[in-house]
């Protein structure tokens, strides 16, 4: 912006002699010149104050502490220790120092149980194979109970409902302990060898076909045992017990585990996910995964 001075004003007067200016006009021009000069001085002063305030707000960043490797022979653990030590302040060392509790603490019952297999059986099973351990924990008594309840449920089902002539239920034959063991052996095998469908385990396809299941039992026999597999008597079961269907086998397995094995002091009890689409009052359904938490 061009600033008018008194010299400029005189030049204007000389150049404008042809114009007729009164004293009031000259006084108005002088006031205009003065106001313009004052406004410029105020703008310059505000610019200086703004630059000073910006300089005061500038913060110099702190210098970061860096890991300094002293020598090539220094181990990785020493490097990590040096890095942690360099980045922990004195206040952190004081606040993270371990100390004994001062207030009244709850009494902790000492753990005096001997954990692991009972001595009577640990000596016998010292060099046993996994099958011997399985037979010890899942005894023949459990299999006899499953055989009894499965045969009973198959008989009750055939008598209580009208079975179609083409139904496989007419081909049902009572099972025994050896067949039930083979049945559960196939279930364990299917947990290791995963296939999309149950029928694929007996398929003769060159890619999906499996030779082992056919040597154990036929597909029809496996499916009909799976259909009538049962662990309790429906007529004598306690209706108020929500897990009455599996209550007998749970009690038997718990008694067997307590008899042969004692857990350690620290135990982690975690939830398990079981694919299940039926109705159960104890479940917590996850709709996204279609899996119920039991």
TrEMBL record:
Pfam families: DDE_Tnp_1_7. InterPro entries: PGBD. Residues 129-278 form the PiggyBac transposable element-derived protein domain. This is (apollo) hypothetical protein.
């Amino acid at each position: 912006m061009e600033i008018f001075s008194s010299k400029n004003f005189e030049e204007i007067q000389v150049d404008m002699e042809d114009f007729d200016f009164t004293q009031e006009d000259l006084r108005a021009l002088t006031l205009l010149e003065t106001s313009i000069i004052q406004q410029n001085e105020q703008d310059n002063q505000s610019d200086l104050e703004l630059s000073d305030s910006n300089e005061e707000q500038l913060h110099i960043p702190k210098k970061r502490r860096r890991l300094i490797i002293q020598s090539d022979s220094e181990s990785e653990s020493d490097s990590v220790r040096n890095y942690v030590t360099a980045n922990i302040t004195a206040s952190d060392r004081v606040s993270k120092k371990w100390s004994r509790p001062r207030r009244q603490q709850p009494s902790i019952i000492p753990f005096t149980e001997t954990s692991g297999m009972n001595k009577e059986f640990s000596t016998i099973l010292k060099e046993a194979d996994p099958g011997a351990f399985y037979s010890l924990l899942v005894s023949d008594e459990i299999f006899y109970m499953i055989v009894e309840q499965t045969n009973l449920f198959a008989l009750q089902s055939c008598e209580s409902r009208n079975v179609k002539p083409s139904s496989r239920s007419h081909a049902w034959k009572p099972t025994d302990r050896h067949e039930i063991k083979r049945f559960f052996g196939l279930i364990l095998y299917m947990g290791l060898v995963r296939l999309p469908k149950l029928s694929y385990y007996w398929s003769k396809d060159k890619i999906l076909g499996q030779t082992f299941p056919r040597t154990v039992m036929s597909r029809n026999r496996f499916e009909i045992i799976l259909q009538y597999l049962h662990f309790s008597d429906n007529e004598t079961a306690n209706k108020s017990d929500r897990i009455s269907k599996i209550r007998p086998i749970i009690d038997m397995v718990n008694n067997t585990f307590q008899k042969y094995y004692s857990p350690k002091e620290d135990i982690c009890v975690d939830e398990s996910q079981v694919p299940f689409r039926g109705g159960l009052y104890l479940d917590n359904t996850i709709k996204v995964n279609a899996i119920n938490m039991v």
